[in-house]
Amino acid sequence: MAEPKKTTKKTVRVESTPEAQAEAAETWKPTPEAKKKSTTFRVIALIMWAVAIGAEAFAIFWLLRQMPFTTTHTIILVVILVVIAGLSIGGSLLWKQANRLDPARKSDTVRFFVQNQLGAIIAIIAFLPLIILIFLNKDMNGTQKAVAGGAGILLLLVAGFFGVNLNPPSVEQYDAETNYIIELTGENVVYWTKSGNVYHLCEGASAVNLESADNTIYSGTVADAHAAGKDRLTLQVDQEIEQCGLTPIEEGVSEEDAEVEQEVEETPAP
Predict the structure, then answer these.
(1) CB-based burial of residue 257 (10 Å sphere; 0-12 exposed, 13-18 middle, 19+ buried)?
(2) 3-state class of 253 per DSSP?
(3) Dihedral, CA of residue 147, residue 159, residue 54 and residue 131, to nearest 10
(4) CA atoms of 7 and 87, how far apart (whole Å)
(5) Of 37, 43, 123, 258, whose CA is between 20 and 30 Å from 153?
(6) Distance separating alpha carbons of residues 32 and 261, to the nearest angstrom
(7) 11 has which bridge partners?
(8) pTM for the full predicted model
(9) DSSP codes of every residue in 163-186
(10) What is the pLDDT of residues 237-259, one digit of tens each?
(11) Which SS3 state, helix, strand or coil, does residue 152 take?
């Protein structure tokens, strides 16, 4: 098998504000840029979800009350269901991006659950009442109920799939990653490429030297990496420790540091 093509790249340092760097020593916090972007994503997602629920209300309080309920009404109802699904899914994807940029604390159980599963909750709210009323509607015949109700159930499952988050990020995860990087390399600096989904230990790691679109390696803090869209540390840690000339964390380190290393290594890919 041919080896992956490597190329010479320039390295660009992504600078955090001094305030963000000082706070990182205490606990992970999103960069101001990430915070602003996450807020924008959440506002847009909330607007999309509000429109989806508004479309559901229109279908419930006007469309389902039409008598007689014709084939044209059925087609319009299916179109509305598709629109609701599109808005629900779009909002969920934006909400997930916002949670990656500015996650909740796992220790705050209720907020952590609601913030990360809100997309699935909205999908249920936007579909379930309408689906129930479709099947209970006395002015629709069996075929109309089967078509509209079946479409509603299918779209609910799809929207719910995109809304649920089985492996949500957390402040604790990002804290563990930051502490692990500092323990391993001596500083809170990592490296990534624009097209990749993970960040790396050093500029010399083979994964960041593969040919890419802009031919650039970016560096910055763990917070900077997450703000740039990188989900986690690479899973090729052992390989990069060797490539970067780093000393592996031995079993003789403190129990707390060992737990941090284990949490980072066991974090599954999204």
Answers:
(1) middle
(2) coil
(3) 40
(4) 41
(5) 43
(6) 27
(7) 217
(8) 0.76
(9) H--SS---HHHHHHHHHHHHHHHS
(10) 899 899 888 888 765 444 455 55
(11) helix
Tally of CB atoms within 10 A around 79: 13
Q: Are 55 and 155 in contact (CB under 8 A)?
A: no
**Per-residue pLDDT reduced to its tens digit, 28-64:** 788 888 899 999 999 999 999 999 999 999 999 999 9
Buried b (16+ CB within 10 A) or exposed e, 154-193: ebbeebbebbbbeebbbbbbbbbbbbbbbebbeebbbbbb
Q: Give 3-state DSSP helix, strand, coil % of the chain, rounded to 5.
A: 60, 5, 30
CA dihedral for 138, 142, 147, 151, sign (positive or negative): positive
Residue 199 has φ and ψ, to the nearest 5°, of -115, 170
Burial group, residue 8, by CB count within 10 angstroms (0-12, 13-18, 19+)? exposed
Buried b (16+ CB within 10 A) or exposed e, 51-72: bbbebbeebeeebbeeeebeee
Rg of the chain (C-alpha set):
24
Q: Of 2, 1, 7, nearest to 206 (Cα)?
A: 7
DSSP string over 30-59: --HHHHHHHHHHHHHHHHHHHHHHHHHHHH
**What are the domain boundaries of the chain?**
10-28+170-265, 32-163
| Measured CA distances, 245 to 122, 203, 237 (Å) | 48, 11, 12
**pLDDT at position 9 over 60:** no
Q: How many residues are present in the chain?
A: 270
Collapsing DSSP to helix, strand or coil, 147 comes out as helix
Query: Smallest Cα–Cα separation from 117: which of 72, 155, 162?
Result: 162
Per-residue pLDDT tens digits for 177-186: 899 999 988 8
C-alpha 62/C-alpha 55 separation (Å) is: 10
Number of H helices, E strands in the chain: 9, 5
